[in-house]
Amino acid sequence: MVSGVQIHSKLAEQAQAVILTDDALAFLAALHRTFESTRQSLLIAREEAQRRWDSGAPFDFPPETAHIRAEASWQCAPPAPGLEDRRVEITGPTDRKMVINALNSGAKTFMADFEDSSSPTFSNMVSGQLNLRDAIRREIDFDTGGKSYKLIEKPCVLIVRPRGWHLDEPRVTVDNAPISGSLFDFGLYFYHNAKELVKRGFGPYFYLPKMEHYLEARLWNDVFNFSQSYIGLAHGIIRATVLIETLPAVFNMEEILFELRTHSSGLNCGRWDYIFSFIKKRRADRSAVLPDRKDVTMTVPFMDSYVRLLIQTCHRRKVAAMGGMAAQIPIKNDPAANDAVMEKVRLDKLREVLAGHDGTWIAHPLINKIALAVFNEHMLGPNQYHVRREDVKVAAVDLLNPRVPGTITDEGVRSNISTSLAYTSAWIGGNGCIPLNYLMEDAATAEITRVQLWQWVKYNSRLESGQYITAEYVEKLIDELAPDVKKIYPGVKEDNLKIAVDYLKGQIKKEWPSEFLTSDLMPYLAIADGAEPKWQKSAL
Ligand SMILES: CC(=O)SCCNC(=O)CCNC(=O)[C@H](O)C(C)(C)COP(=O)(O)OP(=O)(O)OC[C@H]1O[C@@H](n2cnc3c(N)ncnc32)[C@H](O)[C@@H]1OP(=O)(O)O
Ligand SMILES: O=CC(=O)O
Predict the structure, then answer these.
(1) For 100-150, what is each residue's pLDDT tens digit?
(2) Residue 337 CB: number of other CB atoms within 10 A?
(3) What is the pTM for the complete model shown?
(4) Residue 484 and residue 200: Cα distance in Å, rounded?
(5) Residue 75 burial (CB < 10 Å; 0-12/13-18/19+)?
(6) Which of these, 428, 538, 532, 534, lies nearest to 9 by C-alpha position?
(7) Does any ligand 2 atom lie closer than 6 A to the CB of residue 271?
(8) What amino acid positions are annotated as catalytic residues?
(9) How many CA atoms lie within 13 A of 155 on its CB side?
(10) Are the CB atoms for 433 and 441 separated by under 8 Å?
(11) How high is the ipTM of this complex?
(12) Is the Cβ–Cβ distance between 100 and 150 less than 8 Å?
């Protein structure tokens, strides 16, 4: 028992005994009591900024930090052990089999994901911590009955992505308030493993998602300093790569690196969330209406500008500029179709390495060979920090350029509806990443479908056929397509699909779209987990 800390879940005792120990909970409580009020004020600042953009204030680089951008002398810390060469990073949720498969994949690092590819049931979150703890100590194995899994001699270097600052962890309260999902995921991983990782020649490494302002990076940096002191580790042992995946963050990249400079291991182009944020943050801007999701590629002007500025920024500060995720996954039983989609992946990786990225992400172990071959051919050293890209000149207007060739089609609307329904149902059912039509769909990719539908209805957009996209038209299609969701995602459960249908119908008619489906629908997971503090129910 730790004073003020309560667990609202009927979780299995084993995970509880090993992970939710009194000393770990005391650390979480210390993090909460030290940082929660700052987190809350930063979340309020996000809402205030949104109101300013809605009223026409421009997105731009912050004037008060011009000196940080202009100052050429500061650099980030040199790469930490194991992070010198990150040419291929595999990502995935933290279930036991996938952790072993990912660590054995031959990629340089594995980003173990408590965020967009994990549905945050309490069981997923806590057993994920147990799996990582066991993997670090090389005590992990898994047996399906027919196949057994063990770690290879030299597994990938581990990096962990905790949830973003906006998410609560409702199954643990401190002084009657839910703890932050970020602090819960970070805190447990750090507390249980930091010393062990250092003993093994590495360190506690993180990917930090969905930040919108450099002050949010400052909060992470303060959390890192506090945590290192708390357990008696040297300053700078932690390293964090920040995903630049919100529109506001692209205007804060230098500042984010500056805030985290002694803990930084670079930035990453989180392309899917970035598209989601581009639509959501510009919700009041009719000129930001985008065509079908498939048309918003990495080479359209606003995405190309984002990539080039990120690489230039990172290399100026001598730190990794990581590429992102091509969504295609292997197609089994159809070699010709598989070759075609794998060629798309190869071309995406080629674009990244030639642009100057220092590494890339893969969603599936079978893609490692393809990505590795491209980076081995074009990146001869461990990284490309020397590629300074002085030629790059990206201004605010380039990052906001709404010119995206393409149209909105009936097929695009249908595909967004089916994807949104399938993904939302899967997520409520405890699965945060699913294969759909040979694409991986996680919270980032699926959120684009929801906000696009909202945007097209809001601005009464027209299909290429000339028909207007009204709420009635989309609702009719939702009813038509819902029964077929099980054809593309056989795992769907009727009750969850019904929630997904109601949710999507509600979303397309809202004045503004919700910030995150993962916040809106968390109460369903929490109640299924046995957590019933009052604030949960009222949120439904
Ligand atoms: C936008 C972003 O945020 S990107 C980052 C977040 N997203 C991700 O990380 C995506 C991770 N990828 C996945 O979860 C999976 O690849 C999926 C859900 C897309 C597809 O999974 P499956 O349908 O199981 O793929 P498939 O059947 O081809 O898998 C074959 C094997 O590879 C394993 N595998 C597939 N993807 C991964 C992965 N990312 N990590 C580890 N193992 C994997 C499967 O577990 C399976 O193992 P087995 O043969 O031992 O049973
Ligand atoms: O998190 C990654 C993304 O592309 O979004």
Answers:
(1) 999 999 999 999 999 999 999 999 999 999 999 999 999 999 999 999 999
(2) 13
(3) 0.97
(4) 50
(5) middle
(6) 532
(7) yes
(8) 161, 442
(9) 25
(10) yes
(11) 0.99
(12) yes
